[in-house]
Amino acid sequence: SQGINYDALSFHVYPLPVSSTFNVKNALSIAYKTTGQRYSISHFTNVPSKEVWVTEYNMSTGNTGLTNSWSQSLFILSMMDTLIQESQVTMLLPWAYSGQNVDLQSLDYNNFSMKSTGVAVKLINDVSRGLDSCRKINFAPVQYQSYNGINYPKIFGYKFYNSMTSKALFVNISSTNYNLDISSLGNILSYKVYTADTAQIISNGFQNLTVTSGNSSTINMQPYSVAVVDFSLTLGVINFLNDKLYIDIYPNPVDNLLSLK
Length: 261
Hints:
Layout: E1 8-13, H1 24-41, E2 51-57, H2 70-83, E3 89-92, H3 116-128, E4 133-137, E5 144-147, E6 150-153, E7 155-161, E8 166-172, E9 178-181, E10 188-195, E11 210-214, E12 218-221, E13 225-231, E14 240-241, E15 248-249
Parallel strand pairs: 1-2, 2-3, 3-15
Antiparallel strand pairs: 4-7, 4-14, 5-6, 7-8, 8-13, 9-12, 10-11, 10-13
Helix pairs in contact: 1-2, 2-3
């Protein structure tokens, strides 16, 4: 038989939070559990020389109680946290940018207003655009929580950078209020923290969120909030995980290649 040449394996994943009531802890724990399980049973490690392109990922539309809420934005970011750490994954493409499925749209199909998927995608894009390297940030002590026997992070973060500048993304997916000392990451130019009630419907993008900004070395991260930090030339040192050689995060029109070392 003739061998088949291919560049990568494709992976689609849509975890379904099964709770019939609005339960953000149930949803976020499922984001981690199901994403990890589905990836594992796909047996990509059987072909370790091939890349894995995650060309679709989002929350399943089977639970409409959570869709188009701030919780869905946090859900997508939690899925990214799981997938980006897999060594074979070299592309992450949230679904969808538009289209007629009202539960997955980044932009409303009729009036182009930004929805919860769009907010998550833009946060990822804003922190990675034009930068060529990325590393996961470790927290000490490690911050974990548990729901229905599922352990998942309370907070996670990534630093994106090049030789001249860097940015960081922090995501607090817990009810804990954190004061983060980020002075070891570099010279802080500014930061923005985005938050909302987890049930807040996102129908008009960032206008539906509470946004605070500053430039101090300590960031107050309220429960269920996301922070984007802008640095100048990075001089600090922090403990990082080494996970992969590179990963593509879309959309990133300036430079699609993010090198993880």
